[in-house]
Write a structure and sequence with these properties.
By secondary structure, the protein is mainly α. It contains five helices and no strands. Helix 3 runs antiparallel to helix 5. The radius of gyration is 20 Å and the shape is elongated.
């Protein structure tokens, strides 16, 4: 019960980070249209994407706290865990949305890192 009270006091609602998600989308689109031989541009995109992913992780952790508190509350009221999870999914759809968007962002960041490593390797072999 104390855990639930702490969550409720700490976070009433979490504002959906629409601007940050739009920014992440813009950076991903910039990656798709950039010159993959330009290591400096790739490094800047990687920096911006990883910064946004960090911010989104903080939002996701806040939503996760609310989500878990809701599941706990519903189970304590006598609902089954499956029912509690389903109701929490309906109440906090941001959990799924953020997870999917961020997973894609992490894959893009990995692709950029791989591309930068390839460019470094090519540069070293050319010397």
């Amino acid at each position: 019960m104390i855990l639930l009270q702490v969550f409720k006091k700490r976070i009433k609602t979490v504002k959906y980070p629409a601007k940050q998600i739009a920014d992440l989308n813009a950076y991903v689109n910039a990656y798709y249209s950039c010159n993959l031989q330009d290591g400096e541009e790739l490094s800047i995109l990687l920096q911006k994407i990883t910064g946004l992913l960090y911010f989104l992780e903080t939002v996701r952790s806040e939503v996760h706290d609310l989500y878990e508190a809701k599941v706990f509350e519903l189970v304590k009221e006598g609902n089954s865990v499956a029912r509690a999870v389903n109701e929490a999914n309906v109440k906090y759809p941001q959990m799924y949305q953020l997870r999917r968007i961020m997973d894609g962002g992490y894959r893009i960041a990995d692709a950029i890192r791989t591309n930068i490593s390839y460019l470094k390797s090519e540069k070293q072999h050319a010397q």
